[in-house]
């Protein structure tokens, strides 16, 4: 795992000197290299010229919206982007995720959580989620065999339950919006009123996989947004 992260170059796009200083100290302490940009224009220049491994992008920039930067970058790059936002509205977070962000962190944030999110994004960029077998502690998913084991015992899932678990586990550590999961598992066009399908099947999975379904540790709810399948190193 550390080999994935060691020496990774992270571009921090934020116009607040205090935030950049805080991030520089902490990122360097975790063996990351940090470069900086204070505006959207500078961010686009740095991404195109310096080719960082990951971007931490503040949405409130002096020259243009961070969302505009996100959309522009996504036209030509799949670089991992984690949005830093002081906005609490679920709609803003959903817009960032559906606009191409890999994740978001709300200010003020925990450095431990941010570093864990960075590691997840770098791991995804490295292609680890394309493996045919995924292991999450006691849980083992074999995509080739369409099988799921918990503590060595086969877990019987319906086709829909399996497809939902596969979607979540394949993006472990990332927030997946309700709309994305509905589209991925059920296909077609879905609306807010269809989210009850998702809640029902999430409940089924928790009953079959969680030690205590009322206090889930694998499949976490991101209120108003969607769900996140957790990793062992998340804080």
TrEMBL record:
This is Two-component system KDP operon response regulator KdpE. It holds the Pfam family Trans_reg_C. InterPro entries: CheY-like_superfamily, OmpR/PhoB-type_DNA-bd, Sig_transdc_resp-reg_receiver, WalR-like, WH-like_DNA-bd_sf. Keywords: DNA-binding, Phosphoprotein, Transcription, Transcription regulation, Two-component regulatory system. Residues 9-122 form the Response regulatory domain. It comes from Paenibacillus shirakamiensis. CDD domains: REC_OmpR_KdpE-like (cd17620), trans_reg_C (cd00383). Residues 131-231 bind DNA. The modification 4-aspartylphosphate is found at residue 58. Residues 131-231 form the OmpR/PhoB-type domain.
């Amino acid at each position: 795992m550390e080999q994935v992260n060691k020496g990774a170059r992270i571009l921090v796009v934020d116009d607040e000197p205090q935030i950049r200083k805080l991030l520089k100290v902490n990122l360097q302490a975790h063996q990351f290299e940090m470069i900086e940009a204070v505006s959207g224009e500078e961010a686009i220049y740095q991404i195109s010229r310096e080719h960082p491994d990951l971007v931490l992008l503040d949405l409130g920039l002096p020259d243009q919206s961070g969302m505009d930067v996100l959309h522009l970058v996504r036209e030509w790059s799949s670089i991992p982007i984690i949005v830093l936002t002081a906005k609490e509205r679920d709609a803003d977070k959903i817009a960032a995720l559906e606009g191409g962000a890999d994740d978001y962190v709300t200010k003020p944030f925990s450095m431990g959580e941010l570093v864990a999110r960075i590691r997840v994004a770098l791991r995804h960029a490295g292609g680890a989620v394309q493996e045919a077998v995924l292991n999450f502690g006691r849980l083992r998913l074999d995509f080739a065999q369409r099988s799921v084991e918990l503590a060595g015992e086969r877990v019987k899932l319906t086709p829909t339950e399996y497809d939902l678990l596969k979607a979540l586990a394949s993006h472990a550590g990332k927030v997946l919006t309700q709309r994305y999961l509905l589209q991925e598992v059920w296909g077609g066009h879905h609306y807010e009123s269809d989210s009850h399908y998702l809640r029902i099947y999430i409940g089924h999975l928790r009953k079959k996989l969680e030690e205590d379904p009322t206090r889930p540790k694998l499949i976490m709810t991101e209120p108003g947004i969607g769900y996140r399948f957790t990793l062992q190193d998340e804080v």
